[in-house]
């Protein structure tokens, strides 16, 4: 079996997130990967009406979901197909976004240990370059480290 490229593998993991008709597919259906490196990934997603709160701006719960997915996607760049479960997630909201804006999600795996992984996720508005939110995401990964679909990259 040949070793997939980091980009191909990250796309495979993202497709797995979208494989069911659940929450991830509902909110992330138009997310695309734009750049990938060891421990780092950049994705883009257009802000749609479903992502807005009652004030017509991007919903904080949606941005928190992006931090969750971003942390997982950063782990995919390390060859992890299943990316564990969240143990801690925090987010700081700095600016907003509206329908039609494009969110750039820059995610990084800061540390990959034997039981926990630590990630950071910065969300920026592609239109004006402003940081929308900064997140930190810790995941329990011990049970995922030996998954048969993991690969060496």
UniProtKB/TrEMBL annotation:
One of its GO terms (molecular function) is isomerase activity. Residues 56-130 form the Thioesterase domain. InterPro entries: ACOT13, HotDog_dom_sf, PAAI_dom, Thioestr_dom. It holds the Pfam family 4HBT. Keywords: Hydrolase, Isomerase. Belongs to the thioesterase PaaI family. PANTHER family: ACYL-COENZYME A THIOESTERASE 13, THIOESTERASE SUPERFAMILY MEMBER-RELATED. This is Thioesterase/thiol ester dehydrase-isomerase. It comes from Rhizophagus irregularis.
